[in-house]
Every structure is written in C-alpha cells, then in structure tokens.
Design brief:
- The protein is an all-alpha fold.
- 78% of the residues lie in helices and 0% in strands.
- The chain has seven helices and no strands.
- The protein has helices at residues 2-10, 13-36, 45-69, 84-106, 110-142, 150-170, 174-198.
- The longest helix is centred in the middle third of the chain and has 33 residues, at 110-142.
- The radius of gyration is 17 Å and the shape is globular.
- The model has no long low-confidence stretch (mean pLDDT 93).
C-alpha cells in the first residue's frame, strides 16, 4: 500500500512537495524529542549526534522541495503537510504509549523514564525509517525524480545499529520489550498511512 501511495504522491508536484515537507516535519519533531530527553549534564556523544543528524535530515528534506517546486511548502502549517493531524499525533502518541509501557515494565520515572523512552522510541522509528526511505527511494528512481534520500538511508542504518548497542546495555531482555514497542508503532503508522491514502486523488 505504501509503495502505491508514494507513486501517486511522487507523480503530483504539490503532493510530492507536501510529502517531503511532512517527512521534514517528522524528522524535526524527532530531533526536538531527542533534545527534550537529554539530561541537564549527562549528555553523551550519541545523543548529540542523533539530534544533529535528525535536524540535518529535516533541513535536507526541506531543501529537496526546491527540486519539485521552490514556491511550495515554506512552513510547517497544516495546509503544507499531508494528513497534518495524524502526522503531528504519530510521534507524540508513540512517546506517550511507550512511556506508559516502560513505566509499567521497569517502574521508571523522571529522567530514567525519559532516557528509556528515547532508546525505545528512537529504535522503533529507525526500524520504520529503514523500511520507509528505501521504498520511497525506489519510487523516486522509477520516476526518474531529481529528489533523492540515499544519504538519509545510510545514516538511518547507522542510527539503528547505535540504538541496538545502547539497548543491549539497558536490558538483557531488550528484544522482547522492543517487539512490544514495534507493535505500538505499527498501529500508529498504519493509521497514518490510511490517512495519507484518503488524501490522494485516487486511493492507492
């Protein structure tokens, strides 16, 4: 479903610009979430790297819009995003649901809960990015689009490996907990894709 939706999106300049802007918004929201999870003093290099790279992805995707139509999508207002309500709800809802799950499982609170949520939410998002961006790139290649996201694909692969390394240190049973978090993310993502499809001229 996602690939056919993306073909419809890439074939329409306005929809494509909004899609790039939507991805940029989500990367930017992710970067801000990472920064918000930081301890006031104990900030490691990986967290800084992730926040910087997610901000850069947001910037890069926003810049790609000019390859489609430089007059489009100057802001993150609802009119310039695809499925804005679901887009803005997705990451926030994921964060809340994962915090609730981790609180129940590990009895965490305060900064410990924030950091654990950062690990698991970021892991789930990197798993999703590892699936979504290559599908999008394949559609771009097929359409011979000037837009490309290859550099993001490489960095997201590196992020996923880094998150797994940190999760191993967090819990011996991290894989089972990560699987539960993935289920939470999938339900939210599927709702988002359904909302996206409803905005396309012909439902893919």
């Amino acid at each position: 479903m996602l690939a056919s939706n993306l073909k419809s999106i890439v074939s329409d300049n306005v929809l494509h610009a909004k899609w790039l802007n939507t991805l940029s918004y989500m990367e930017n929201a992710g970067a801000k979430k990472i920064s918000a999870s930081e301890h006031k003093e104990n900030v490691n290099l990986i967290i800084l790297k992730h926040a910087a790279e997610e901000h850069r992805h947001a910037y890069y995707l926003k810049k790609q819009i000019s390859k489609v139509d430089e007059s489009l999508c100057k802001t993150y207002t609802n009119a310039e995003l695809l499925s804005p309500n679901h887009t803005k709800y997705y990451l926030h809802a994921l964060d809340i649901a994962v915090c609730r799950y981790l609180k129940e499982q590990f009895n965490l609170s305060g900064y410990d809960l924030k950091f654990a949520a950062y690990l698991f939410v970021t892991y789930a998002i990197e798993v999703r990015a590892d699936e979504l961006y290559p599908i999008y790139q394949a559609v771009l290649d097929e359409a011979k689009s000037k837009v490309n996201v290859k550099s993001i694909i490489l960095e997201e692969e590196g992020h996923l490996e880094e998150m797994m390394n940190q999760l191993v240190s967090f819990s011996d049973d991290w894989e089972n907990h990560a699987a539960e978090v993935i289920k939470i993310e999938k339900a939210l993502f599927d709702n988002w894709v359904t909302a996206l499809a409803a905005e396309l001229p012909i439902s893919a």
